[in-house]
Design goal:
- It contains five helices and five strands.
- With 138 residues, the protein is of the alpha+beta class.
- A hairpin with a 3-residue loop joins strand 2 and strand 3.
- It is globular and about 40 Å long.
- The model has no long low-confidence stretch (mean pLDDT 92).
Amino acid sequence: MRTVFVFPAGERADTVASLDRHLPQQRDPWTLAGNLYINIDDEQTGHLFADWDPDDVAVLEATVGHRPTWAVQIDISGRIDGTAEVHQLVALLLEGGGVAIDDYSAHPWTLQEIESGAVIGSLRFFDSRAYHELHREH
């Protein structure tokens, strides 16, 4: 299972309403195509940042200008590549601003960087193939 954290710029309630609109009649988790599992996580009642490297949290804080109190956590099944589905969902969640962080880099990705295919540290957003090539994993 791979994970993407999305930190939308808007209010949590607006993000929940958007997920409810686009993925109706489900929650805890919402699912997309039966292979993406979507939840809201926070530090107060959940586990947000519990296993994060403090330097990665500091980079996120510097990018958004504060420590986010919640995030959308997307878990992607290993049964699928998931790139198209993740890009679709992240575009929806970041349409009002914010950033996303994937399992492959600590870079907080903006929607513009994701949609343009920007390469940062030899990787694009959610670039498992390049990551595994860089680390010689198969």
